[in-house]
């Protein structure tokens, strides 16, 4: 490629015919995106799926009106001009990226799509000095605004208070099953199971670097083990717990972080400063576990605190006793 040369065309260089063609393909792409969202949501969120079906139908209507306009003014052959061909034209995030981020993320993305399109057409209409082109772009801007209003009406029609609450409840449950439960199990395992080897090493050697090395190895090893175990234990098809990859990542990362929390202080050269800091971090980790159990698993906070603190204290004591005996 020639330095400084861009393969994309500038919007200022497009003819009126090309602008209409660009709008046609943009509407076609957006309709397909909405249909993909609808298909993705249909099983668990039927009301939202109906909303996106309606929005796709609206985009089809816009596209057909643009095609009719194009044929009347420019003929039968529509040049192939898409967003990615134009410098500065608004873009769409890959569907595979958005559809994996949850119901509210998809709803927000749809709203942003309408805002982007309307804003672009308004700016384009204000820039052009040709009366016909200005009217054309202004009409497209109005169409996108009306589409946004239609989307709001569709949401109100298809997503009543009960439906929205039910879909939000299902989305929350899926979030808990896919991310919170595996992550919590990993955090508990990493925080508690590494207490004994880390503090046993600390009190046996009183060498901070050796203790950190053992803690790092224990944390990373436990994270890898927990991650693979979670991913392999359930494919999520029957249990509905979601992607095994997501659950494995959540469990593995949180296991590693749980162990590293009280291993990292041993980068401090002074043994007792490092140990006191590590013990303080352990209490923070145990409190965080109890809070998550109370917040997402509906476990009474006092009971969660008692269970976690008691278990952690026993493992910590075992590590100290074993380490001090050497």
Describe this structure in words.
A two-stranded parallel sheet has the order 1-2. The longest helix is centred in the middle third of the chain and has 33 residues, at 161-193. The protein folds into two domains: 9-159, Ferritin, core subunit, four-helix bundle (Ferritin), CATH 1.20.1260; 172-324, no CATH class. It is elongated and about 90 Å long. Helices cover 77% and strands 1% of the residues. The chain has 326 residues and is mostly helical.
Which helices and strands, and how do they pair?
Elements: E1 9-10, H1 16-41, H2 46-74, E2 86-87, H3 95-98, H4 103-127, H5 131-158, H6 161-193, H7 195-205, H8 208-233, H9 244-261, H10 271-296, H11 301-324
Parallel strand pairs: 1-2
Helix pairs in contact: 1-2, 1-4, 2-5, 4-5, 6-8, 6-9, 6-10, 6-11, 7-8, 7-11, 8-9, 10-11
Largest sheet: 2 strands, parallel
Q: What gross morphology would you assign?
A: elongated
Strand content: under 5%
Which class do the helix and strand fractions yield?
mainly alpha
Adjacency order of strands in the biggest sheet: 1-2
What is the radius of gyration computed over CA atoms, rounded to a whole number of angstroms?
28 Å
Order of helices and strands: EHHEHHHHHHHHH
Low-confidence stretches: 1-5
Overall strand count: 2
Question: How many individual helices?
Answer: 11
Mean pLDDT figure: 78
Number of domains: 2
From the N-terminal CA to the C-terminal CA, the straight-line distance is 68 Å
- Provide the helix percentage: over 70%
